[in-house]
Amino acid sequence: MSVSFSQYRAYSAALVGARYTISTDVQLAALTAAGGIVERAGLQLTDVALNPLDARWRGIDMIALVEANALLPKLKALGGSFELDPRLTRNLESDVRIVLDWSNDAADIDLWVDEPNGERAIYSYPRTLIGGHLSDDMTSGFGPEEYFLRRAAPGRYTVRANVYSPDRLDPNGLSRVTALLFRDWGRPSQREESIDLDLQRGQHGEVRIGTLKVGGEK
Q1: Entry pTM
Q2: What CA–CA distance (Å, rounded) separates 163 from 203?
Q3: Nearest CA to 181 among 168, 190, 171, 170?
Q4: Which CATH number fits domain 92-218: 1.10.3470, 2.60.120, 2.60.40, 3.40.50?
Q5: pLDDT digits (tens, 9 = 90+) for 161-185
Q6: 145-149 and 191-198 strand pairing
């Protein structure tokens, strides 16, 4: 296993810990276990952020850093912490955050987000007029690609995947695309929706994944 793939596995495992939720009535033992999970996740994410992977995962360092910063308040509430250079410590809380990844290493899948004003955040137009920010285009590896918007205009944000190549090594292989749609990322009111989409054999082109609504719509 290459060092970069091993790091990616650590990143993927860290996200499981990062999204570990804790109810308000847990027992002390469960609370202690949760603190350990979150702390390990923070250390793994920090490692990925500070030790860049190869070109297949260009941009994953910044995405990992966003995840690590969002973990710090949760871990402090549990009485723990992990070391992160103060110069890199900033919770990029956002009205909207969307993360897309996929199951096949040799796939090329793009995250597209259609904004309420008609703009589309896409690899060739990663910064939109209303402030949308799309991460680097990953043309191999498992993703992730990320879109975030600090202060969102009201309306509907439509999430799409552009399947450029589902799997170059096995054109008949199946890929699973997973999208995480966050509202109020990095805030106590954070909520999320996870959407899995199984691509068909040889599927190419644009696929609608879901819609995130902001302002006045439930």
Answers
A1: 0.80
A2: 7
A3: 190
A4: 2.60.40
A5: 998 766 654 555 567 888 999 999 9
A6: unpaired
